[in-house]
Amino acid sequence: MTVTENKICTYEASGKLMLFGEYLVLNGSDCLAFPLKFGQTLSVTKSGALTWESYSKHGRWFFVSMDSDFTILDTNNEEAAEILRKLFVVIRAEKPDLDFRQQFRAEANFELNWGLGSSSTLISLLSQWSGVESRKLLDVSFGGSGYDVACATAAGPIIYASGKVKKEVSLPESITDKLLFVYLGNKQNSREEIKRFKDRKVDQYHIDTMNGLISNALQTNDIAVFEKQLDLSEELISPIIGTTKLKERLFADYPHSIKSLGAWGGDFFMATYRDLRTAKSYFEAKGYDVLFTYQEFIK
Q1: Is 131 helix (H, G, I), strand (E, B) or coil?
Q2: What is the DSSP string of 48-94?
Q3: What CA–CA distance (Å, rounded) separates 216 from 210?
Q4: What is the pTM assigned to this prediction?
Q5: Main-chain phi, psi angles of 176, to 5 degrees
Q6: Which of 66, 101, 235, 283 sits between 20 and 30 A of 241, alpha carbons compared?
Q7: Does domain 171-297 have CATH number 2.60.40.420?
Q8: Which helix (H) or strand (E) holds 186?
Q9: Residue 77 and residue 66: Cα distance in Å, rounded?
Q10: Can you name the CATH fold of 2-167?
Q11: pLDDT tens, position by position, 21-71
Q12: Range(s) of the chain covered by CATH 3.30.230.10
């Protein structure tokens, strides 16, 4: 948190991506996740009433004003306003002495349809401001494993499982110098994916296998060995969720690995490469022109 001379408190939260452990983390497996250089800030200024504004790179997209009982007085987005109202109700129950007569201004420095964590960063920012545990706020709003909220305040890649960060980790440059993140162009609804996954059969074999893949990926300096773990992860998840692997569906002629990130079917995916210019040209020729290297994207 930073505080300016005119007493504006500003909080920061990073976006997220999950490389290993998607879906299975909901059943207790480890996941390997990245906090991003993209994220959201929240500025809070003392005011006579409760007002909230959210901004993207394209300007203000959401506003709401509420009275002292969190009745919505005015808004341009009823669904977003209702989620925020529920969060404020929980915060007041936990922190009854907190003054809600504040002007809140949230600013995201990424495209909201990229799926990088507009929801999880909101939860983290409100948790930082109020002192209420983020898990309580997550449970009444968006749900999920909580890895994304953990990424919001992480300094680097993390191993997350069963509601907590197990450890911070790092990948060698021999690996990170060969990773490209590409926007697929389909915003995925994580809440809907979570509901869909709950009906799938997962046993201890799947959990143990995923944990082993993560361990192997973190122990190697060889990109070919790392790619093998990516490919095996895709093979493990595909039959569980009943979805064709992304490489098989869209990029069968790509010579290296393609890895879905988080909920399959939307948002970003990761590709390995040997020559960056060649990899970028391949995806751009197919119409995928939002691309980031590891160094540009990951904290």
Answers
A1: coil
A2: SSEEEEEEETTEEEEEEEE-TT--EEEES-HHHHHHHHHHHHHHHHH
A3: 10
A4: 0.92
A5: -65, -25
A6: 283
A7: no
A8: none
A9: 13
A10: Ribosomal Protein S5; domain 2 (3.30.230)
A11: 999 999 999 999 999 999 999 999 999 999 999 999 999 999 999 999 999
A12: 2-167
